[in-house]
Design goal:
By secondary structure, this protein is α+β, with helices and mostly antiparallel strands. 25% of the residues lie in helices and 22% in strands.
Length: 360
């Protein structure tokens, strides 16, 4: 109540001066009263908010999976990436000088990628990168207000959905944004999904197929494109998956393309033989399958061409596997010991503690 009384006192003082100031005091009284009343309400509101926050339990920390890229960070990425498109749901900030006053307008991109500029009109952004739209919009504002120095920035990038279907655990939609690439929506892919032929069907019906192995192995970003609104991703079952192990640079499991065989597996996927490899003693394990109920264990020279089937496993030994090996067994002393006798390179201990070369 002290603040309310103060308002009245100030009002009385203002009223006295108003009578001496030809009626201007009444206006001053009203303005001062409103300002102080606003301060009083703000203070009360702040106290209530602080009390509520003190009673409310602390918000639990977000798990690592929930600590996704923050909106502000996405905005910076979108501004710095030349390929970022005008995306439905984008929120932009358009600032410009209107005389000596700085005006800031919030701009929203509609579902058809039209940029709603308010009294500046509507700008068609479909198919444009943000940098292209930014240059055109800033030019439009400059023409309307000379010397306005307009600036268009991304406040919040838009989010849209992409459908993923085919060789997946279950078909469904995935939330993405303008800088999401193809490989970010494949979490539901089954173990049999091909990464060598992933198809995107665009909103206009056009199709394109991509090889994510080449994107990963060769860093070919064209094989891992950005997703766009209306895209549909289709996964299919792989044709052949084979493995290579042993003396190669890159052992692993690989999906082969039609026409590829043992030579490609070793030289392209395995990235070549190690210096210690013994390719002439290569081993091929062929698992049993429908129509081929018995598996097979085949010795082959991996430098020669050979057809591979789904599930084949190739092993290339190294030279150490074929070194002459001598085994020493029995009750012998450690090397160099002489108390009970000595042992030769091979053989078994005799009763006297010595061993012969032939083991007698």
């Amino acid at each position: 109540m002290g603040w309310i009384d103060s308002i009245g006192s100030i009002g009385n003082g203002c009223g006295s001066r108003a009578r001496r100031g030809k009626g201007l005091g009444r206006l001053s009284y009203a303005l001062v009263s409103l300002v102080l009343l606003g301060i009083l309400c703000s203070a009360a509101g702040a106290q209530q908010t602080a009390a509520a926050q003190a009673k409310a339990p602390a918000e639990p920390a977000k798990p690592p999976a929930a600590q996704a890229l923050a909106i502000s960070e996405r905005s910076i990425l979108a501004l710095s990436e030349p390929e970022y498109p005008v995306t439905p749901g984008d929120v932009y900030s358009l600032s410009y000088l209107k005389g000596s006053t700085l005006d800031v307008v919030q701009v929203i991109v509609d579902g058809d990628s039209t940029v709603n500029l308010g009294f500046f009109g509507r700008f068609p952004g479909s198919g444009l990168r943000f940098r292209q739209a930014k240059a055109a919009i800033e030019k439009k504002v400059s023409e309307g207000y000379a010397g306005s120095i307009p600036t268009l920035l991304i406040v919040s990038p838009g989010i849209f959905q992409v459908k993923v279907e085919g060789e997946v655990e279950s078909s469904g939609f995935v939330n993405v944004w303008g800088l999401s690439r193809l490989d970010t929506v494949l979490e539901s892919a089954t173990a049999y999904a091909s990464m060598r032929a992933v198809t995107i069907v665009h909103m206009d019906g056009k199709k394109a197929t991509y090889d994510l192995f080449k994107a990963d192995r060769n860093g070919d970003s064209k094989q891992n494109p950005f997703l766009r609104p209306g895209d549909r991703v289709i996964l299919q079952r792989y044709e052949r998956s084979v493995s290579i192990a042993g003396s190669v640079v890159r052992p692993g499991i690989y999906q082969l393309l039609p026409g590829e065989g043992l030579t490609e597996l070793v030289e392209i996927y395995g990235d070549g033989l190690l210096a210690s490899a013994r390719p002439e003693f290569g081993k091929l394990t062929r698992r049993a399958q429908t129509g081929r109920p018995d598996g097979a264990y085949i010795q082959l020279d991996v430098k020669k061409k050979a057809l591979l089937f789904d599930g084949d496993a190739v092993y290339i030994p190294d030279s150490e596997s074929y070194l002459d090996v001598v085994y020493v067994e029995g009750a012998i002393l450690a090397p160099g010991a002489t108390a009970a006798g000595t042992a030769t390179a091979a053989g078994t201990a005799t009763a006297a503690g010595t061993a012969t070369a032939a083991g007698t």
